[in-house]
């Protein structure tokens, strides 16, 4: 009887781990286009942008573009952690 209980418990744990793995891949989340400035959080102006490592980042004002250029990786990471999919730099 205890073998049966242990087997069922192990099976339950494996089932939970399998479900958790599927969620961790991000399959349940859809990336969104950028709508807010990574520096100030205001609505972006598509005329103001900077390209960094093949990614295009938009800003609300010229001063935010200048601030971004001081540490672009920090702001790109922030956007991506928020589920934003940045546009690729045009060829």
UniProtKB/TrEMBL annotation:
Residues 1-30 form the signal peptide. Keywords: Signal. InterPro entries: Ferritin-like_SF, RNR-like, TRASH_dom. Residues 37-72 form the TRASH domain. One of its GO terms (molecular function) is oxidoreductase activity. This is TRASH domain-containing protein. It comes from Desulfovibrio subterraneus.
